[in-house]
Structure formats: structure tokens, C-alpha cells
Amino acid sequence: MEDFFTYSVILGIFVATFKIATPLLIAATGELVAESSGILNLSLEGTMTLGAFTGFLVANETGNLWLGLVGAAVGGGALGLLMAVMTATVKVNQIVAGLALNILGLGGAFFWYRSVYEEGGAVAFPTVDRFQTATVPLLSDIPAVGEVFFDQHWLTYFGVLMVPATFIFLNRTKYGLELRSIGHNPEACDMRGVGIISRQYTAVIYGGVMAGLGGAYLSLAGGNQFFDDIVAGRGWIALAIVIFGNWRASWILGGSLLFGFLEATQLSLQASGVDLPYQLLLALPFILTIVALVLNRSRSQVPLALTIPYHRGER
Amino acid sequence: MADTDQSGAAAPGENILVAEEVTKVFPGVVANDSVNVAIRRAEIHCLLGENGAGKTTLADILYGVYQPDEGRVLLEGEPLELNSPRDAIEAGIGMVHQHFELVPPMSVIENVVIGTQAKQWLDLTEARRRLEEFFADYDVEIDPDAEVGRLSVGEQQWVEIFKTLYFGVEILILDEPTAVLTPQGIDELFRILRRMRDEGLTIILITHKLKEVMDLSDRVTVLRRGKVVGTVDTADVDQRDLARMMVGREVLMQADKAASNVGEPVLEVEEIHLESDTGRGSLDGLSITVGSGEIVGVAGVSGNGQNALFDAVVGVRHPETGSIRITGQDTTESAPHRIATLGVASVPADRIAQGLMMDFSVKENLVLGNQRERQFSRAGILNRGQIDAFAAESIDTYEIKTPSASQITRTLSGGNLQKIIMARELSGQPQLIVAHQPTRGLDIAATEYVRRRLIQERDRGAGVLLMSEDLDEIFQLSDRIAVIYDGRIVAVTEPDATTLEQIGMHMAGASDTDRGSQ
Known about the structure:
The complex is a heterodimer of chains A (about 325) and B (about 525). By secondary structure, chain A is mainly alpha-helical. Chain A is built from twelve helices and four strands; from the N terminus they run ααααβββαβααααααα. In chain A, a hairpin with a 2-residue loop joins strand 1 (about 120) and strand 2. In chain A, helix 2 packs antiparallel against helix 3 (about 65-90). Chain B folds into three domains: about 1-5 and about 15-90 and about 205-245, Rossmann fold (3-Layer(aba) Sandwich); about 255-345 and about 430-518, Rossmann fold (3-Layer(aba) Sandwich), CATH 3.40.50.300; about 355-425, no CATH class. At the A-B interface, helix 7 and helix 8 of A face helix 2 and helix 3 of B.
């Protein structure tokens, strides 16, 4: 049955590719919107962790997974709001603010988790009855294709749909055009009467909400519990994917799927006991990001005012 | 565009926009001091003044960028509360800033519609139609889908102007719009501005150039150190009157200069070619010679190779072919540091980006580049005593106005910044001085100072290569004038043997065509 084995492994890899890519897609499309407004939110890792926890907490307390998602959105959005206050209003250095909030998100989530679930020095690792995959009728019966594309979590469909949605929002709507303009030249927008701060708040809070939802995928759909280091670097990878994707939604899809594919391959290779240094595969997405950046450096779509705070009247 | 219709009976000539007793104080500076200005409907009104006279601050108040500390703005007799540019735009006031407010990676059309779209769904068809109509109407050829960052500065200015008019404003404020234009471009702009005025637009033009005021304006308000000196009808005054109002004293329009005493060549540039790889222009077989004790002025419209020539002579870029000799030594491939040690002083056009470390102290900037000299350091350790002594002496000799030698350079005015560069560069008694736009943006006193110093250096025996877009400066200082066009020197002459018009024609690269309206 060697053939069947290979087929099922490969199919498994493709199915897993989308699962692994889901939190990255959701967080990265959100971060794309935030960065388009000129604010680099480095706290994605912490925001995803907090979202994973608040989502888990609400779901566990209420027994309703959908309310859990709302909890994750609120948790992530709250951290996004803090980021917006610090960068758009107070105009703290964005790198400093992002790193600080990252630590706050990571530490806060775990501290909160222990203060709720620790009893007598031991944590009873609670679990939730996690999301099942949402099978699309008929389409999911197509061999292979059905399993890969139409038998996934709701959040996976959502993540993939966010790619065209983000593209249309940024490029085909008035608000998106204004956001991108702010990211490139806030002064030009100010002089045109386009309010900067409100739009940056919207964008950064939205980015936080999406990061929270991305985190919730890990605790409510991909897994069924919260634990320390649940996000395991995915926040940083999502940030790298935005850069790798050259601030374009379509490339972010490609980057997320590529990473998902490499990770899935790496996992199944390990599982099947193939003797290949998995560290090499783990490093691949990062190496590719560097290569892509070098090749793209002259045509980079990076928002020109990214990380530069705007003060009216300073030229 | 807002609710101006009910008062639509207003005739040309009556006051439309009035600044009343406007005072604006920035930390340490009174930018506007009880300023009163009345702008009439459908006139071209110049705000004239030197750098730092408060023109731009006043315009920014009229456009809602700043709020006045005291006083108020009246639109058609009604007090106008301007808390942001949005308010100004809604009141029908638009402004084109000196530094363009464009989004370079976006297209012309996207830039135009930012802030104007009513619907959430982006619809560019209407904007495109109006844009194409406007460009056709005024004979401007710009592709609405072109990326703004790839347009020339002249084209970018048209985008800026149309962007503002697209709001349907009735009052258009232009801050130094000619700074980036060729003489022909200026003629073209003025022709269109006059037409717009005749069609009912009120235009406020900020400038420090007397000629522009005389050419274009109906009335002019002169500002000096934040105060209004007066408002006059342009027809009633001449350039000398305006200069006196602007500076507050009689201005010598001529620099005194003894006959030149030209010696051996200190700079010989032969047939150099330089490809444009950095956006700083190219050279196409340029040759020029500067002798000791003479000033050679290079006249030309910006972007014809001045930057490339500067770079090649000081060694920042090396030509592909041709040769450069400085005091007889081949420096074609030499590094900037070696060229400097041959006695070459350089005064770059962009003093902030290329001439100074803005966050360093004045004294550090005064020795910048010379820090390896024995006078200032021993075995890599800076000799602070010597540096302090040198700084004190320079501040004294060059009349640099700074609270102390340790002051952060950023806080100084443009004239003082240039004096720091001059003090540093001229300290070693250079044999060759390469000066690019040495007086751009300086007030009249600082300009006079810099020009006088250059003449002194020439009298001492230095050769000076002076590149300037200010033709008056070229004529005043030069012993010989070379015209640069398209990366080559197309004419060399002496100031007495030519006219402004002839030089202008060479600058346009068309010696046989008439300059039309001039």
C-alpha cells in the first residue's frame, strides 16, 4: 500500500497547509491594514496570545465558542487600542510601543490564565469543545479538492476570504485610499482635510482584532486549550509575511500558504521518521523572506511613512 | 465652494479675505506680529518678504494649519473659524505648499481625489473626466494614471495646483511656486495664473523674488520680521522700492569687485561623461577650466547636470570617461578625502543633507571632515582645547549667531548654517572652491556676506566654481560665465560681453529660438 500511503500523506500536507496558514493569514491581513496607515504594530505575537486566551476564557466560561471569538476580538482589539493611543496620540516610538505591548500581551495572558485556573499551585489544564470543521455540502465530496478546500474551519474560510476583501478595501474604497495615503504621506492628507488620527485608530484596532482572532484559532479550532507559548512565534512570522508579501494582499496569501506548506511538510516528515534536519525547513520561510526582500528592494511597496509619527506643522 | 452663492453679487475689487491683527508666536519667535492684510476678490496678491519674514506662517493661518494666538480671519466680512485645513477647504480656500503634499507611489488621479470622494466606493471616472478637461484646457500634458513620484517637479506642481482647484476653491494660495520651475515654466505658470484670475479666482502668491511680484501681481503686501511693512499697488512701485520695504534699508544691488588676476588653472575638467545612476543627473562630455583668482559662474536650469558636476569635482562620483585635474594633479578617480587635502573646499547645494550634521554641535560641525588634521586630533583622540579655540575664532570671524559653540546646529537659521559651512571650508585657505547654490534660501544680509566672502577668496588667489540658478548672482560674481545645458557647457562668455536674455536662451538650450512672451 505504498502508493496509498504517499497519497494520503500528501493530501494530509495540503489539508494541514491551510490549517497552519489560517492564523497567519488572519493576523497578517490585519497587520497589512494597520501598516498601510503608517503604524507598525510589532506586538502581534503578544496580541495573538492575549486573543487566544480571552477567546478561550470566554468560550470556557460561557460554553459558547462563538462568544469566545467575540472575546478574542475584544482582547486583541483592546491591545490594538492601547497601541493606537501610544502611537497615534502620544506618538511614542512605534518600535518601543510595539515591543512593550508585546510583552504586556504575552505576560498578561499567562498571568490572567494562572490567576483564573490555578488552584493550590497547580493548573488544571481545562479544555473546550473546539470548533469542528465546516463541511461544504457537495463540494466537499470532490476527491482530494473537497478535503483540502471545503472541509476546513470557518476561520480558515474567513482567513482566505480576507485576502480579496483586504485588497478591495485598500484599493477600491475611499477609506482604503485614504489609509494608504496616510501611510505614505500623512501631511498631504492633513492638508487635504483627511483626519489622520481617527483613521490610524481604526486601522490599528482592526489589526488588533484580527490578531486576536488569529490567536483564537489556535485555542478554539486548531487546538482546544490555552497554554504558555501557544502562539509559538506565529506573530513574528505574520509580521515577516507582510514584508515578504511586499504589503500586497495577494502575496500575503502566497506567503502564508508557503509557510503553511513548509511547516506541514516538515511536520509530516518528522512524523514519518525521515532523517532530514527539520530546522532547515523551519528556517526556509525566513530565508525566502530575505531573498524576496533583496530582490524587491527597488520596487518595495512599503508605506513611506511607516513608523514615522506625524506632527502637524513640522516640515 | 461652500455657501458663497448668496453673496455672489460681490464684485471684483472688494475684500474677500482679511487677516485682522493676527499674531502668532512660536517658541522664541514672533512669526506674525499684529498682521493686517486684506485680499480683494479676483486679484493676484503677492506676499513678499525675506526668509523668516512670516509669509508662510500667515498663509498657513489662512489655510487653517495654524490657529492665530490673537486676531482673526474674516471671509467676506464674516469671522472665519479655521481649526484645520478641512475648514479652509470648506470655506473655499486652497493652498499649494512649497514642499509638495503629494503621495509619490500613487497615481495622479488618486492624488487628486484624496479627501474629495463622497461615496465609500472609489469612483474615479468623474475625476478622470475633469482632470483630462483641465489639462486639455490649460495645455498641460500629464497622464492621469502616471505614478506621481516619477513625474518631473514641474509636472508635480501642476498636479498640486489641480488637486487644490478640484475642491472648487475660490481662493488659491501658492507658496513659492516658481522655486522649482525653469524660466519657461515660470512664464507658462504666470500666463495661466493670470487667466485664472481673469476667470474670477483670487490668488495669493508668496515669494521673495521682486521680479515675480512686478511681473504678476496686482497688489503686494510686504512683510518684514513678522510685521506688515505695507500694502501697495504694484503699478505704483518699482523693484528698488520693494527691496527697501523688504529689507528696511537701501539695498546695494551690485557687489563691488576688483578686476580679476587670473593665474594657473586650478581646475581642469576635460570631456567627462557621467551616467545618471543615483538620480543626481548625468554629464555628457563636459569641459570647464577655472584659473586661480577667478570666479567661473555656471548658469543653468536646475537638473542640467549641476549636481553631477559638483559630485565629479569633489570626488563623490567618478566619471566613466574624461579627466579631471586639480592644481595639476589627476583626480579623476580620487576619493573625496584626497581631493579635499589638495585644497578643495566644497559648499553643497543642500546644506542640511550634505553639508552638516544637524544634531551635532556647532563646533563639531566646524571641524567636520578636518578632524584628522594634526591641529584637531592626535592618534585618533580629539584635541578638545584646539577645537574649542578654533570654533570660538570661527564664530567670531564669520559672525555666526549662536548662543554657544556647543549649541545643537539644528536650532540655527539658514544663514548661520551656511556660515558654519563657509567657516569650515575656507579655514584651510583652499585653492579651489566649489560652491553650489551658496545663497539659496538666505536672507539678503547673509547673501551679501556669502558673496563678499567668495570675492575675498578669489582676491586671495583661490579659483571659484560657482553654480547657481540665480542669474543675478552669476552676473554679479562671475569673471566668466559658463552655461550648462543637458550635461554640457554650451557657452562660455564674460559678463560684460553678454546679456541676461542671451544667457537665458543658452540655458533653454535653444540659441536660435525666440523666448516668446519675454
